[in-house]
Specification:
Keywords: Glycoprotein, Hydrolase, Signal
GO molecular function, one term: hydrolase activity, acting on ester bonds
Helix content: 25-40%
Shape: globular
Family: Belongs to the 'GDSL' lipolytic enzyme family.
Structural class: alpha/beta
Pfam families: Lipase_GDSL
Distance between the termini: 60 Å
Largest sheet: 6 strands, mixed
Number of strands: 8
Order of helices and strands: HEHHHEHHHEHHEHHEHEEHEH
Protein name: GDSL esterase/lipase
Length: about 400
Amino acid sequence: MGMATRANTRLLLLLPLVLAVLVVEGSTAAAPAAAAAPAAASPFRTVYAFGDSFTDTGNTRSTTGPYSFGYVSSPPYGATFFHRSTNRYSDGRLVVDFLAEALKLPSFLPPYLSSAAASNTSSAQQVGVNFAVAGATAIEHDFFARNNLSLDITPQSIMTQLGWFDAHLRATGAGSKDDDRRKKVGDALFWVGEIGANDYAYTVVARDTIPPKLIRDMAVQRVTAFVEGLMERGAKYLIVQGLPLTGCLSMAMTLAPAEDRDNVSCVASVNQQSHAHNRRLLAGLHQLRHKHPDAVIAYADYYTAHLAVMRSPAKYGFTEPFRTCCGSGGGAYNFDLFATCGSPAVNTSCAQPAKYINWDGVHMTEAMYKVVAGMFFQGGGAYCRPSFSDLLARKAQGKP
């Protein structure tokens, strides 16, 4: 096989967590950088998290990670905050970690597949569990397998995580009585991290037979069905994230044609795809709010938060909006899909990650996650609707 053929094959097999570089049918104010804890004691003592690599705190390891981003257990992942890899796709904390800090939880959420959480330890019972897994999709894995679009590397979907949640409730005894289970579930905060970008990535090579609109319809339907499934189990307080500006990731910038750009110099077609996905998701959440008036469903607007940063990166402390901190290849983006972060060829990162938005080409730096978390948790209703403070107040009052 020639060099070009091998490169093309690897590119088609690449399953990044938050990227689908394809042409689709269409493309604020400053907020505090840190997610400071609320002044009053938090009314939530338990959080359950779901999603993909933007939320995964350790369910994925190097042996199970997405193709070409399968080095998450190696340095320099985790170097900034933990000073070692914790199998988070960043140099430090994620938005869900800043959520735990904002709620003053005694620890970060343990990953479900770790021995700590799976063994029903006190930590898992005290603070909750993180079910998010890198590479996860909204649509079930069988769909991709039937269409020959799966490598079986990351076969988990959002519904897989719902099954894990049920198993966790049974393991902790919360599933023995329906009333007990519903009370436990009703007292918790549910964080539904961004999910769906992988669905577009899996089908990028089949756009002629599986159009992006079909993926959008199916993916959003699965996410809304998942959210409703949580409410059927007793969930009353939920925050659902939309997709970020996936067209502003270093990998997208590297692979897309130079003329495919929007007014923030990102890949227009990919950002349009995320925008269309989010609009459809918002419509679905609106219907769920009417159907379940006894629950609070907040929408964390990742797209708008990300856009605010890209419009004025210096305002938020960033000098490198596109260049990868942990990457290789130099150039404007410092990204090489054949030598990604943590691989033998890339075992060091930039000297100042806090100046960078992009960490490894498809994931953010801790600094960027911290800014986004500040927008969600301290930005009023501009980036989280209803606002995070309103959600806390309603829980403290014991009403949805």
